[in-house]
Amino acid sequence: MPGNPDTTGLPVVSIRGLEKSFGALAVLRGIDLDVARGDVVSIIGSSGSGKTTLLRCINALETYDNGSIQLDGVEVQFRNDEAGRRQRRNEWELARLRAETGMVFQLFYLFPHLTALQNVMLGLRKVRKMEVAEAKSVATDWLSRVGLADKAGSLPSQLSGGQQQRVGIARAAAMGPKVLLLDEITSALDPELVGEVLAVVRKLADDGMTMLMVTHEMAFAREASSRIIFIDAGRVAVEGAPGEVFREQANDRLRSFLARVSHL
Amino acid sequence: MLYHLNFGLIWKNIGKLEWGLLLSLELAVVAIAIGVVIGLGLALIYEQSSRPVRALVSLYVEFIRNVPLLLLVYLVFYGIPTVVDIRYDGVTSFLATLSLYAGAYLVEIFRAGLAAVPRGLTDAGRAIGLTPLQGFIHVRLPTMFRVILPSLSNTFVSLFKDTSVASVLAVPELTYGAQWINFNTFRIVEVYAVVTPMYLIAGYGILGALRLLERRFAVS
Ligand SMILES: Nc1ncnc2c1ncn2[C@@H]1O[C@H](COP(=O)(O)OP(=O)(O)OP(=O)(O)O)[C@@H](O)[C@H]1O
Ligand SMILES: [Mg+2]
Known about the structure:
Chain A is α/β, with parallel strands linked by helices and 264 residues long. Chain A contains 9 helices and 12 strands. In chain A, helix 3 runs parallel beside helix 5. The model of chain B has no long low-confidence stretch (mean pLDDT 91). Chain B has one domain: MetI-like fold (Orthogonal Bundle), CATH 1.10.3720. Adenosine-5'-triphosphate (ATP) binds next to strand 2 and helix 1 of chain A.
């Protein structure tokens, strides 16, 4: 992506010993994960295993208890104060860091009062501080990349689910994020609309966008990702190239998970 | 005895009603403006605060909403100056009262509105890097607006009608103008036959203006 300096071979996202509990419920219990530039990593795992929580921790929508998440070598949510104590960053610092990670949501969450074009422009104007003309041209460009040039003036309520989700992708990708986080972005769609959205993701992958996606689309994960991780009991239980992971028989939990989703 | 309608004396004094209507509208606009600031501010404070602060906000809301406006107007105009060394005219006193009154009703509306904005939408704003203030201005406020505009319209029209209470402090708004003409000409039927449509038309004017806004924000 433009604007992403290639800082040698450092991973874009580097997660170590990530722990997160909601009250007594320990959801993440020591996640280790590296995502290299241009990698497309799919996260699979059963419902409630913490996949969404992991993504939300990466772009600081959720805070975590222990461990570290680094984005291009910068600790995302915490910093050390003068006395060397770990401090959570304030909301303004977090906002700046969040702009470096894009997020696409299961339920789209387009801004309902803004047109498709304005949805994509908002972050460019207010966060990237672009002039109207520049923001408009970048946003228009992204809308055509997701195949919606003709829908620029439409409100979300006038778009199909698949179209809304493509606007959602454009909104996140236009910011030029270091990594795009996709959380089950096709699971709220009618089956016939899934393909158009996956095609866009596929194209982004081919263009070199670094992506971390939670998905239940096993066929797509297998075909589009460079790596797959299976989360179980709050840890990365299995990790590898798609071929290896789907062939993996050593892990019972993965085997039963795959058996279950293939029946969906 | 037959009552002979005679509008002549009303037209002679129509200036009183015109100025009265203008003052009524001014009172309403200022009270609504201050009320919106109070309402939105307290709704946000309520949302962000712990129990004791919330209880204070609720106390204010409940107190105002359960005391008749007329009583509040007397309380502020006659009551407060006897306790504190402060002096104000009818207009100032009434404006203060109506603003506080408006604020109490608007807190409830804004609170419900803010709660109706889906969490995911706020998150979507944060995810593209909006600061808390930017997220509030560009995501929560406009989304909330679409939800609350109908109840906002009702409240604004009510507040406009409530300006008639100012007549008890001899504030020369529309109702006071009517009472003055009534008192000085005894054309009671005629004066209210003229004033009632004035309230109606102005009320509809306010509703119409808000409907236009509503259409701009509302998305089917
Ligand atoms: N804000 C929260 N407060 C309390 N518990 C939460 C919260 N968010 C998530 N959880 C719990 O944490 C666990 C993990 O949730 P998460 O949404 O990350 O799972 P998931 O793997 O994304 O599941 P799914 O496949 O159903 O989307 C669940 O048990 C969930 O109920
Ligand atoms: Mg999830």
